[in-house]
Design brief:
It catalyses: [protein]-peptidylproline (omega=180) = [protein]-peptidylproline (omega=0). This protein has 147 residues and is mainly beta. The chain has two helices and eight strands; from the N terminus they run ββββββααββ. Helices cover 5% and strands 33% of the residues. It starts with 6 loop residues before the first strand and ends in a 7-residue tail after the last strand.
Amino acid sequence: MTPDGVKYYDIIEGKGPVATKGSTVQVHFDCIYRGITAVSSRESKLLAGNRIIAQPYEFKVGSPPGKERKRGSVDNPNGLFSAQAAPKPPPAMYSTTEGMKVGGKRTVIVPPEAGYGQKGMAEIPPGATFELNIELLQVERPEGNQT
């Protein structure tokens, strides 16, 4: 459980480096509501205007939502990917990845106040509790050592 009361459990512990506060991580995430995948990083980018490619989501552990590190090839309209926005993860993801190991998979029970609140997102209605599945793919330590 996180300090703010969000419950989680590890499905697979992982064997790689640990994500610590301030680390930049790449993850795949899926928000599941009543058995339906409502929001997912696995359906995030348009490739060459006509094909979808699963692009990992990158952010700094413990940072507030919206402070993600921008990747030039993703955000540049002349790059490989279109400028289509990536799916928006719930705020709970920024803190619940702390302590995960690369290769690990974690399930988080996200209450509305740590999720999409009273606005909702896609098939997740306002005020809903849902399941967040996170797979940690890569950790880059704050000093720039990629692992």
